[in-house]
Amino acid sequence: MINTVETHEWNYPGVLSALHNGFLYLIYGYRLAKLDPQNGRVLGQMELPTGRAAPRDTSYNGLSGLRDGTLVAKSVYRERGCEQQGFSAFLCCPHPQLVPNSVVVAIDPRTLEVIDQTVAPELIGGRITATEFENHSYIYLTGQKTVYRYIYENRRLRRDFSWNPGTVVLSGQNGPTAVAVMNDWVVFGTDSLPAATPLSVVAINQADASRQFSSRPFADVGQSWSPSAVSVDPLRNRIFALDGLAGQIAAVDLRDDGLHTVWTKPQNTTEFLALIGPAERRVLVGTDAAGQPMPPSCPVGGGTQDSVVWRNADTGDEIARTSAPLPAVNKGTMVEPGYAGRMYFLAQNGKIMELTVRPARPGEDQPK
């Protein structure tokens, strides 16, 4: 679609989404394209607003959709004059916060036109989240200390000031990741950038923002960092969180009296965790850069290889692991689920690898 080496633009991971109209929508940099799923043919393209930043330093990190098919997205920026690529721009540029506020847009999927746009109160790092709740179309955005909610109604975006959760981070923590919707709640982890204080998992009620629960599943660690959003199982009210600097993942249940840690396991990952399988047999799949501690400064892309681990989501027990190390994963992605148990690994070197689990052979202690 574009060669960022030739255009000298910020190369940030895009997002490919499938809409119920049967077409694929690809957001990459400050562009959006509509694709034919049969042959990949480009049916239309558009440039998205870049606000007060140069297009070369603008990307849209996330794409979501509302019930009527309207697409919603928001911008992030690389500091002017910085040449860092990928997620490293958020950590390794000299002053990564010296950028404009994010632009939030609503897009018509048929005409590829911007229906409405607004400027967020600050730079929004976590990806945009859209949902339907009590017959309203809501959009959730995470700032440095709080979560914002917007209403999309009559083809207009407007801030919902009636829903105000206040400050959602503790002293020493930094801003939350993108939120995940779980039934009547939105949930997230803090410390989307490296922090000296253990992260919290937080749940906020969609009907009443004053109803909040917070828990620290990795309370005994020092430095903390969770650049990827939590994953959720709405059928169990269960949240799966990670800490890339602590090298741990956890399952946390949301109950009537608060958040309760079910299990924690050592796993060195910064990527989104994929939850697959039928309701009675959930499996959690993610990367593991075991034995490759992340450097405390600019902890992106330091590893040279990864493994993929399958876990019993109820107990955290390891079910299977790739038999040989894989190349380093492309940061900011996840091990993507496919059909019939297949998983797809997106490597930093540009390769896509299909993974399948086979039964354990004689002498092996687990499947590979």
If you had to describe this structure to a student in words, what would you say it looks like?
The chain is an all-beta fold. The chain has a domain at 1-164: Methylamine Dehydrogenase, Chain H (7 Propeller). 2% of the residues lie in helices and 39% in strands. The chain has helices at 4-7, 89-92, and strands spanning 15-18, 24-28, 31-35, 42-47, 58-60, 64-65, 71-77, 103-108, 113-119, 129-133, 136-142, 147-153, 156-159, 180-182, 185-189, 201-205, 212-215, 231-233, 238-243, 248-255, 258-266, 274-276, 283-288, 305-312, 318-321, 326-327, 336-337, 343-346, 352-355. The strands form seven sheets. Strands 5, 6, 7, 8 and 9 form a five-stranded antiparallel β-sheet that branches.
Task: Please give a quick description of this structure.
By secondary structure, this protein is an all-beta fold.
Major sheet characteristics: 5 strands, antiparallel
Mean pLDDT: 92
Query: Which structural class best describes the helix and strand composition?
Result: mainly beta
Number of strands: 29
Beta content comes to 35-45%
Quote the distance from N terminus to C terminus: 36 Å
Helix content: under 10%
The number of helical elements comes to 2
Chain-wise SSE layout:
Blueprint: H1 4-7, E1 15-18, E2 24-28, E3 31-35, E4 42-47, E5 58-60, E6 64-65, E7 71-77, H2 89-92, E8 103-108, E9 113-119, E10 129-133, E11 136-142, E12 147-153, E13 156-159, E14 180-182, E15 185-189, E16 201-205, E17 212-215, E18 231-233, E19 238-243, E20 248-255, E21 258-266, E22 274-276, E23 283-288, E24 305-312, E25 318-321, E26 326-327, E27 336-337, E28 343-346, E29 352-355
Antiparallel strand pairs: 1-2, 2-3, 3-4, 5-7, 6-7, 7-8, 8-9, 10-11, 11-12, 12-13, 14-15, 15-16, 16-17, 18-19, 19-20, 20-21, 22-23, 23-24, 24-25, 24-26, 27-28, 28-29
